[in-house]
Input
Amino acid sequence: MSKYRFKPSERYAVFTVHGEICYLCRKPVDMATFQVDHIIPESLESKKETLEKALDSYGLDGSFNLNSFENWMPACAPCNNEKRETVFKALPIFAVQLDKAARKAEQARQLEKDVGTSRQIAKAVGTLEAAHQKGKLGGISLVRLLPLLEYLQPRREPENLGKPLRVSPVLEVLRRNGAFVTVKGPYGVGTGTDNAPNHGGFRCGSCGASAWNGARCVVCGAQDDD
Output
């Protein structure tokens, strides 16, 4: 378990510049639940001899900062939890990951700075983080996330431009047309207004989501029979 408390802006920078995939299994991750992994484990800070050997095997010196963008990669929870404090042997595949982290570090720092200093983006980040912590990702108000989503969209890696943006395990933003947002959930693709009110049947009474496919909520599957 990481001792370092990642700032939300650091998390989203890592998520974006490294292609929105787990660097270990190469499967897509989502903004809300992905984890930031230390390629060289943070736990080695208290194990000087082991740390020196690990750094030397990768051609790194003692100035290498374990808690920096040069050592952070996005990972899915299963991979990160299985890896834990494993120190990978100096195989080419992991040397490549360290090299990639180093090459993307300045880009990540700039993105982190922009996300962290914009009041609107910071509020959007806070909304997503709070929903995750409270277990209410299905009921996210999309209008509150728009500053973050609109900032990240053009800054995604080229291979992800035009693809759905995975906000949470149950929600992908496909496209936006004016006030209407089309999203994909477990129960299909649906459309709703990004600032849907809580009354009048605009939001699902079960999960609070505002995306419908006919009378069915695409997030939780509940049906509105009114």
Notes: The two ends are 47 Å apart (CA to CA). Strands lie at 35-38, 72-75, 165-168, 171-177, 180-185, 188-193, 212-213, 216-217. The longest strand covers residues 171-177.
